[in-house]
Amino acid sequence: MTDDGPAGSDWFESVFAAQRVMVILRGFPPARTVELCTRAWDAGIAQVEVPVQSPDALPSLRAAIAAGRERDRGVGAGTVTTVQQLAEVAAAGVAFTVAPGLDDEVVRWSTERELPHLPGVSTPSEIQRAVRLGLTWVKAFPATVLGPSWFTAVRAPFPLVRLVATGGISAENAPAFLHAGARVVSLGSAVADPRQLEAVRSLIDRA
């Protein structure tokens, strides 16, 4: 993978240029993960994240990566908090990684290996630290605890930082976060619920 920016800033800018929605598939067995990946891709969501908060989630990630290769879709690994995890998911062939927090060592490892990484932040100090590390894309977590007004407020001092709203985001509340300044929203259980799927498609069209 090639990447011109620290920890994948240019890569995120490119893949989200015409896409403002991604999906997180946490805690599903491999077959179900692939099913939901396919549902997300068919709905028009290009970027899928499979969290690996524990080793038993790795089979689901690997299954999603294999399915993505058949569709020419990359799959990301979420809840990546250590360099050891980074090495494991990089070996599996992930397109990008996501973390709940900001770790300097993880960012440096990702930058050196040109693996796009999206760290989590929840304060202006953390955003400032991310900027100092050369990042322009960060994950705002937990988004619904922070609230839409937080996004509006931090966009003022950090206009060049791209915020990905994550945590408690649904098709129903996502528009409020996009309007408040989030560049991308990460949906959780929405694609797993057939009743929400039409709302997800509508969100994609609006976004």
UniProtKB/TrEMBL annotation:
UniProt keyword terms in alphabetical order: Carbohydrate metabolism, Lyase
Gene Ontology molecular function, alphabetical: lyase activity
Pathway: Carbohydrate acid metabolism
Pfam families membership: Aldolase
Keyword Transmembrane part of the UniProt annotation: no
InterPro entries, A to Z: Aldlse_KDPG_KHG, Aldolase_TIM
Protein family: Belongs to the KHG/KDPG aldolase family.
Complexes and interactors: Homotrimer.
The protein's name in its UniProt record: Bifunctional 4-hydroxy-2-oxoglutarate aldolase/2-dehydro-3-deoxy-phosphogluconate aldolase
Organism name: Cellulomonas fimi
